[in-house]
Model the fold of this input.
Amino acid sequence: MRTQEGADGLHDLLKEFEGRPAAESGRGKDLVNLAMIRHWCEAMGDLNPAYTGDDAIAPPTMLQAWTMGGLSGHTDRSSAYDELFALLDAAGYTSVVATDCEQEYLRPLRPGDEITFHAVIESVSPLKTTKLGSGHFVTTRMDVRAGGEPAGTHRFRILKYAPARREDRPARATEGVPATETARATETTRPAPKDAAPPRRPRPVVNRDNQGFWDGVREHRLLIQRCTGCGALRFPWLPGCNACGSPDWDTVEAGGTGTVFSYVVMHHPPFPAFDPPYAVGLVELAEGVRMISNITGVPYDKVRIGMPVRLEFLRVDDDLELPVFRGSEG
Done:
């Protein structure tokens, strides 16, 4: 086990990398182009007319997409970045998980823009203990330019960690499937005593923009917003229409049928109240909107794209009930 003195010494070495370049004189592999914008919008279900036509702009959240190395990898990554990771690997922090990102947009990106970027190792945290294990958070900041002009900033944070031993991981209940969870810097917990109450599932965030949706769930109704300006349906709930901009809306009740549009099988990280592996599906409802939810009724390895599903409501505990979708192998 690494001593505190050893951890402090390693952190001193890691901090020497702060401010050093992670990528220098980077260049996007493609110009900003309509084909990639179209694929992105189709995947996200984003129908905003600003992203189509002769005067199209790229969705702001595509900022990182124009800088990615693809399957062939990056050719502009600095030696400092590789040295930092080699140092962490040698210290036993061999696993990695992305935790969060922040983006700032300075100007729209348009088809034909040439993307260049410079990335710096912004910070390396002291040793942190998380539910996954102990390690260091590494934050890089990428400054993106388009046609030589500042276009945006992308901060990306990962955790380089040594996985916790199985006996040190938190106990898990066997029921249910979570929404995606990022690693959180919290104290490692020991398995709960056998007579302890099972851990509670995370509570959904309820605010003034989605209160009506959760009111419907309590009545066993799956409500979809409908713009009263243009009639477009939207999910998840939003304060305004992303098709015409109208703030006025009413609701329609979903019939409860749909198909699996896409899915992932979650194996890691473990999280209290859930038991991987399990399938999380992007369900396309018969009404045409899509939502992320649990797929129940079939083993995780039997879920398939195109599988018919039907809405049901899962009672999780005394004060939480969730809409889920039951699949059928037949």
